[in-house]
Structure formats: C-alpha cells, structure tokens
Amino acid sequence: MTSFAELGLSETTLQALRDVGYTEPSPIQEQTIPPLLEGRDIIGQAQTGSGKTAAFGLPLIEYIDPEIKDCQGIVLTPTRELCIQVTQALRAYGESKGVDVVAVFGGAPIRTQQAQLRAGGQIVVGTVGRVLDLITRASLILHDCRFVVLDEADEMLDLGFLEDVEKILSRTPSGRQTALFSATMPPPIRKLADRYLYEPEVIQVKAKTLTVDTVEQFQIEVGQKDKAPKLVEVLAAEKPTQAIVFARTKIRCDQLFRTLRDKGMNVRALHGDMSQGSRDGVMLAFKGGRVPILVATDVAARGLDISSVTHVVNFDVPISPDVYVHRIGRTGRVGRSGRAITFVEPKQQSELAAIEKHTGVTMTLWAPGAKTAAAPVHEKPHRHEKPHVDKSVDQEGPWAKLIVAAGKAEGIKPADLVKVVTSAAGIGGEAVRDVKIFERFSFLSVPEGDSKRIIEAVSGADVKGTKLTLEPVGAES
User: Which among 39, 104, 267, 393 could disulfide-bond with 126, CB atoms 3.0 to 4.6 Å apart, if both were Cys?
Assistant: First the structure.
C-alpha cells in the first residue's frame, strides 16, 4: 500500500494530513498527486467520495508560495455548497504552511469578498458566476494564477456554466497547470479538455471501487405507513456517529425532521426551500459534529463531504441507481467503513433490482446488528422484473442525455419523468438515469441505442397539463 509520504508530499503537508486523520491515500489520490506534483495537466474521472478534493488540494497547497500574496491558484465549483466544502478542506491542508484561502460565491455580500481578496487570497475557491463577476469588477486578477482546478465539470455543464468557465480560463496564463474533475465525460466536457488542457494524463476511478467495498448495504421492506416508525427504530438500533437520512421531497424532509425531533433526537433538516443562511448554518453544525442526524434532499446535500458520516439511510428509494451510488458515497469514506440502509416499499422491488444490478451487490435484509452477506447479485433469483420491461434495452452501452422542455415551473418532479418515460416507452425504471429538474427544463439519460424510440414515444405525453417535448443533448458513456 502506497503511503502519502511516498507520493512526494512535504513533511508540512504530511503533518496536516495526520492532523485531519488521513492515514493512506485513496486510489484517485494515489494516481493524481504525483503527476500534479510533476506539473502535468490531468483529467480525473471520479465520483463524490473518492477523495478528489485532497487529490488536487494537496498538490495545490504544495505549489503555493506563502511569501507571495497574489492569487496563485483557483478552484471553480458549480455550487455554493461545494465551494464551502472545498474551502474548508484546503484551509485545513494549508493552515500550518500559512496559505490564505478565500471563498467567493453568490448569495453573500460581494463587498466582503472583495475586501478578503484585497487582503490576500493565494487560493481562491469560487462559483463560476461570482468569480466572473469579480473578474469583471477588477477585484480578482488572475495574471499570476498558474494552477486551475475545474471541480465537477459535468455539473457545470448541466447548469449552463461552460461558456463562463471558458471566459475565466481565457483570463489565466497560457502556461497554467490545469486539473479537470468530472464524474462523467459528455462530449462538451471532452471538447473543453481538448481545448484548454495540454497533453493531460487521464485518471479514472469507477464508482464501484468507491462504494461497494467500503459500505455495508442493507434493505428493509416496509409499507409506506410504517416507514417513519421504522426509521426511529433503525436509528435507535444503529446508534450512528453521524447519519444522513435522504428523503425524496422537501415536504417529506420536514415531516421526518419533526418526527425525529419529537422523539428527542438531535436532528436538523436541509432542503432547497430553506434560506441560504439557514442551510449554511445546518451544514456547519453537521460538519462540525454538533448534529448527529441530518435529514436532507439530494439537491441540498450536494457538496456535503464529511469523513465522519457512518450511516446513510434512504428513506425513499433513489430515483436511479446513479443517485443511489451518489448517496451511499457519503459514508464509507477513505480509510473508513460505513452502513447504508434502504427502505423499500413492496411496489418498489424493480427499483431495488436495478440498483443491485448497477452496484453488483445484493442488499442484506436489515436487522439490529446485522452484517452483510457476500453473495454476488447474479446468484439472486430474478424476482423483481416488471412484465412490460423491454429486454432489448442496452443498459451497459453508452447513454444519451435528453433535455425536456419543462421543469419546476410546471410542477414537474423526477418521479413524474421516470413514470411517463417507463410507461410510454415500455422500459424499466433502471433504463432512466441522472434525472435533474431545473426551473424551466429538465435532463435525463437513457440508453443511446434506444433514445430515438424513447423520444418518439414520450414526446407529446401529458404531465400535469404540460405536453412534453424531448430532444437529445449528447451521449455519455
């Protein structure tokens, strides 16, 4: 097993790693840190939970000259939450070296951030829009910024930020070192890499490596009316150090928060209807260990990267296998084990089967103190398949991303899209992935070979009074 010392990090940085409890590098760190220390550009394809913040953050800290007060490195993030997470990590890594890290993001006073930049900011971590705004105001000068990180580039693409990312890159020196991280590599991201990275080294860490080996996975079959009492029972039995309970909707999130609070548990809720100040307060309390249980929606929890999370509970079955992997990646972090418990209603057996096929793991039936069995998924009887599933759908090949001309403004929810696609096209729920709902449009992914048929079958379908139109965005592997 390679140690952090063998990767070429300085003693100051090694001590910082010991202080934060890192014992050995994860695969993405082991493969990424050496080429970055050598000055190479890299493309890192890895999911949340792989340890990618340290993979680019440690070389970045090594690179900074604390005697020079100008901005020497910038990390671009798609969301405010991820910006805060990365900033906290970099401050921990660079504290003993005296590296000044400044976070800039929307929703906070720009004058305060301008003052912080005037006072220092050797590393700037920021959301794309706020960084571009500060550049336009001449408050952020990138002439001496020779280390650039694009974190979760595919999320930037989904949010429509890629053009602004290019504007920012054009303001940095041509001789910069660039690291691009993305869970997926759709064509626009590959094109961006081709244009702005110089002979990058490509590093890939598959999601299965990140989650299956370190997380014990359980299922509980429970009726809808019995789910809340069962959650109370599970948390009492498991006694998690820290747990995230995922709920599918904001309303459900609030209901569970009240249920657990009324049972005397120290719990907080996190969802998109809360004010940004309230969300920040909850995140800081949870990250600081003052709150052991967090009930959250998927969108609100994006960017939460907390090594002390011991349990993830899926109160609602995730809408796709990819979302499941993303959720359970919140536990079983580098060098630690975790437990994931999924509540499955009787009608959701097909969704469970899709997740098990995707991860290659059969979930063990939960009981207090239960341990996981090691049976591979293909040995399990195929008891879950829906009669109308079209078995010709190629779920192992490339995936096509589709855009839907409807979103939150029309009252569309992820479950609505999954339902209409599966019923109209005659496919199983496992053939619909990466559903994302924005204000006026939505995204989803389907097997590329079947995308044309699915578009024809679903276009014109009525959802909550809105006639759907689907168009291809591009394919992704």
Answer: 104
Q: Which of 296, 290, 289, 300 is nearest to 312 (CA)?
A: 296
Handedness of CA 419, 425, 428, 433 (dihedral sign): negative
User: Helices in 223-376 by DSSP H: which ranges?
Assistant: 227-238, 250-262, 276-287, 298-301, 321-328, 349-359
Find the helix packing angle between 11-20 and 52-63, rounded to 10°: 150
Count of C-beta atoms within a 10 Å radius of residue 230: 16
Alpha-helical segments (H) within 75-206:
80-94, 110-119, 128-136, 153-158, 162-169, 187-196
Q: Are residues 373 and 296 in the same domain?
A: yes
Tens-place pLDDT, residues 286-340: 887 888 999 988 766 665 666 678 899 999 888 777 678 778 877 765 556 789 9
Instruction: Using DSSP bridges, classify how beta strands 42-45 and 201-204 pair: parallel, antiparallel or unpaired.
Output: parallel
Residue 34 lies in a domain: yes
Neighbours of 136 (CB within 10 A): 10
Residues 48 and 179 in one domain: yes
- Alpha carbons 321 and 294: distance in angstroms, whole number: 22
Domain boundary among 205, 228, 250: 205
Kindly state whether residues 374 and 237 are assigned to the same domain.
yes
Q: What CATH number has the domain bearing residue 278?
A: 3.40.50.300
Do residues 117 and 177 both lie within one domain?
yes
DSSP state for residue 200 in the 8-state scheme: P
Rg over CA atoms, the chain? 22
Residue type, 267: V
Same domain membership, residue 287 and residue 338? yes
Q: How far is CA 103 from the centre of its chain?
A: 19
Provide the whole-model pTM. 0.53
pLDDT score, position 423: 77
Pick the range with the lowest mean pLDDT from 171-175, 210-214, 326-330: 210-214
The verdict on 421 and 278 lying in the same domain is no
Residue 135 neighbours by CB under 8 Å, 6+ apart = 141, 142, 168, 171
Asked, for residue 389, whether it belongs to a domain, the answer is no
Q: What is the pLDDT of residue 413?
A: 82
Domain boundary among 205, 239, 272: 205
Q: At what angle do helices 349-359 and 321-328 cross, to 10 degrees?
A: 70
Indicate if 192 and 224 belong to the same structural domain: no
DSSP 8-state assignment for residue 264: T
